[in-house]
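Example 3.
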Amino acid sequence: MALTREQMARRVALELQDGFYVNLGIGIPTLVANYIPDGMQVMLQSENGLLGMGRFPTEDELDADMINAGKQTVTAVPGASIFSSAESFAMIRGGHIDLTVLGAFEVDVQGNIASWMVPGKLIKGMGGSMDLVAGAENIIVTMTHCSKDGQSKLLPECTLPLTGAGCIRRVLTDLAYLEIIDGAFHLKERAPGVTVEEIAEKTAGKLVIPDHVPEMSFA
Amino acid sequence: MAGFDKRVASLEEALDGLEDGMTVIAGGFGLCGIPENLIQAIRDRGTRDLTVVSNNCGVDGFGLGVLLEDRQIRKIIASYVGENAMFERQMLDGELEVELTPQGTLAEKMRAGGAGIPAFYTATGYGTPIAEGKETRVIDGRDYVLEHAIRGDFAIVKGWKADWYGNVIYRHTAQNFNPLAATAGRITVVEVEEIVAPGELPPSQIHTPGIYVDRLLCGTFEKRIEQRTLSA
């Protein structure tokens, strides 16, 4: 069975470590915040200038001056800090963020990522995504393995305009967890009930399959 | 006006000298921390052919979106746009030029503009469409793109509190691009919720020192929320 969005978020949450500063993109990455293990301290960075993003506010706490990068109203946790956009991207570009999780349209065997623009469709902009992929050492891309029409999103070479070149090392899809090493996807884990054959069939880029591919666990 | 007193009496005075074809840098992220009153005043002046530098371009009928209604913006430099139907139509019709810029690069362009740094190298965007035609350079084995600073004829800024001298404090995430915009205007105009006497704001808590501010006024704010999300 392909992973649900919640299962994908739970799998990514296993990569969190106590004391990590983490930037979560919009969509599945945002759900990772729901699975931070009890007793672990993680600070969420929102690139509009908030380090220590908390839950959504109650009606009483609602404040138009407190939003996240998705323009949603949020709260700040105790010990949070707030700063300018230049400071925020100094943290990002300067490699100070321990883990970045973001979505994509395509990833290829060279670690290129395309996530912001589909030619012919309305282009809304890259926001902070180009800075995030250029700045972070430790990035996990979360996306479905195939597009809605069944095309593989793990490619020999991205077909869409890039967000960043050579910057992605780890990908979690609804079928598998893979690492990008020396021009190939290396299959590290498969979703429960998903066969290696199915993953191989749905991966267009070069895929290296070890003798044993463990089933993913979520705890 | 005397000495360091930056207060002006009206929005008209605040925008005196703003002419057709000028570049205006605006603070704000989405609809958070936007200079609502100055945007409306630019609309009322009818100034046209503006180049607007802002992370976003408002929504239909609010924020910078109101300047699209009378086609006052010729070009926008932004990281994320298209939250309004009018924007989309004008862009597709070719009436509105859009220069998309990564958010961190946009912030740094403003910061550099205000800090006297003409250009800077960044890894952001290398190998992507936004690097096309730009100088690149390898530094310590990594590829970088040369990005140029931005200055504006005007900067319009939203603060929380300021003293007469133009020392400004921002509130929560309404800070965003505002302190950067404030440094990068040849004429920087700040609107705030409250103006106090010099000495009432703690010097070590000032976000934008008054040296960057030319004109200051107090306004009332709707503070519209773009995505109202509540805890269950």
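Chain A has one domain: 5-208. The two ends of chain A are 18 Å apart (CA to CA).
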